Amino acid sequence: MSTRFWCETAWVDGEVATGVLLTADETGTLTSVETGIDTPPTIAEVVPGFTLPGGVNAHSHAFHRILRGRTHGDGGTFWTWRKVMYSVAAKLSPENYETVARAVFAEMLAGGYTSVGEFHYVHHAPDGTPYESTHAMERALARAAASAGLRIRLLDTCYLTGGIDTELSEEQARFGDGTIDGYMDRHAALSESFATEFPVNAPGESFVRVGSAIHSIRAVPAANLPRFAELEGPVHVHLSEQPAENEACQAAYGTTPTQVLDRSGVVASNLSAVHATHLSDEDIATLGGAEANIVMCPCTEADLADGIGPARELADAGATISIGSDQHVVLDALRETQGMEAGERLRSGQRGRFSPAELITSLTTGGARSLDLPVGELAVGKACDFIAVRTDSMRTFGSVGEQIILSATSADVTMTVSGAQVRVRDGVHTELGEISDLYRAAFFALGMED
């Protein structure tokens, strides 16, 4: 049995097409993409406005959403913000994290994302002991994503030290696996378990896949890094987000975090460097030459006063640019994408650093490459994942073609579809209901209802 959507206009093969008929099979995979169909067929859902492939959120920490609007009272720094983050992490259990993540993933869908790379490091109980139920936290995230209809690449994160040559703090104990062998053994078991529990038989079918991540140069000793070159699939890493990280790395290893990774054999086309804010020219050439992926998180980088990374230079050097929401200052795929271009304009004094088409690519196929997911395009063989954007709102009226990527916000997303199923319609999740109610339950579960 097939499902059909007729889109008034849509982004197909890198351009705006009209009268686009999408047909998906029972697995949620696109089997036909036809353009120039002036009249919608009788058996097809009509999708008004402008249809984009579903946004790919290449970097997320789901529980960080709890911090939104709660860390600005005294200004502070990235490092004081981190203390508040640890206090929230300490409250998480498999049961309440599933409730929290379900709300976050539902909001993500409403914000224009249909896939996420969840950079996950809260593996164990608060004292660092494994849960009796194997992979309890990871399964909670997988269930939350599947129930919301959000495609997830669970980036199982290695976190061994609290800083270079520094033991994990009490707050970080639940993040660690003791040794690199401990991480590798747990990661292999997780990958095997999830491959059985969430089998992938077709592009649109499974909503859960596993990848790996190095938390940072601070959290994984350089001697352990070559082990990640042995792993298949996506490998993500926080890279040069703060000058203090670069300074500590220089003091310990005599070079930059990028060069430490490169010496370890980790910099390759399957690597995604998140933030990549404070890079040298050599770093840019190294990442670009390896055709690595770069995940820019503009709203978080602005919120934490991280700085503005050299996205244009990285793209010109050969890297693929993608977008992430990180701590979810906003969950708005369009605003996040606009933020990258805004940052480029502010630091360069030039407009149009990324064309509207390039911005769409960063949000869609760029993220698909970073996470190695069959998404990001309205094309045969890809998952039937897309969003519909109003073209007649007070924000978008008069926008020309793909330039709507620079005028629309999540308030203009009228429909989100993943796996050929409508997940969110006019801001309400079709199965989970009002997303604000999901958050009310999440804050209650954490004991933070006040």
Morphology: globular
Question: What structural category characterises the helix and strand content?
Answer: alpha/beta
Give the strand order, joined by hyphens, for the main sheet: 3-2-1-4-13-14-15-16-17
Computed over alpha carbons, the radius of gyration is 21 Å
Sketch the major β-sheet. 9 strands, mixed
Tally of strands: 17
Roughly how many Å apart are the termini?
A: 48 Å
Q: What percentage of amino acids are in beta strands?
A: 15-25%
Mean pLDDT: 97
Low-confidence stretches: none
Keywords:
alpha/beta; nine-stranded mixed beta sheet; 450 residues; single chain; eight-stranded parallel beta sheet; 12 helices
Write a structural description.
This protein is of the alpha/beta class and 450 residues long. Helices cover 32% and strands 22% of the residues. The strands form 2 sheets. Strands 3-2-1-4-13-14-15-16-17 form a 9-stranded mixed sheet. It has an 8-stranded parallel sheet with strand order 5-6-7-8-9-10-11-12, sandwiched between helices. α10 crosses α11. The longest helix is centred in the middle third of the chain and has 18 residues. The mean pLDDT is 97.
List the helices and strands and how they pair.
Elements: E1 3-12, E2 15-24, E3 30-34, E4 45-53, E5 55-60, H1 78-89, H2 94-110, E6 113-120, H3 136-148, E7 151-158, H4 180-197, E8 208-214, E9 235-239, H5 243-253, H6 257-263, E10 271-275, H7 281-289, E11 293-296, H8 298-303, H9 311-317, E12 320-323, H10 333-348, H11 356-371, E13 386-389, E14 413-418, E15 421-425, E16 428-429, E17 433-434, H12 435-445
Parallel strand pairs: 1-4, 5-6, 6-7, 7-8, 8-9, 9-10, 10-11, 11-12
Antiparallel strand pairs: 1-2, 2-3, 4-13, 13-14, 14-15, 15-16, 16-17
Helix pairs in contact: 2-3, 2-12, 7-9, 10-11
